[in-house]
Design goal:
2 domains, single chain, mainly alpha, 123 residues, elongated
Amino acid sequence: MARGDKSAYTDKQKRMAEHIEEGYEKRGVPDEKAEARAWATVNKMTGGGKKSGSGRGKKVNLAPAKKGGKKGGAAAAKRPAAARKASAKKAAATRAKRAGTATKRGAATKRGAATKRGARRST
């Protein structure tokens, strides 16, 4: 079998690779690199192309698919404290702006819920 030949992979593995590739592309990874990473992830999770036959299957290891979120903090930790602090302040300001409109709607909902609870208790 030639390198890059995907005939040994099941339809499910091909769908997995396609889905993983789309995720990488959404994050701005170039097409070729996204495809390579996707297949590497599928290989790591499933042990490569599946062969037919009873009793030859292996469980899928989900750890490689969850690895990205755990590795994410390393880059931020290397940045200077002043840069991290500035980012945090900017994010807090953005959240406060957005929360200003959301709290007006949320306050009415909370009041409505409180009256309902109060009505239930008095009966």
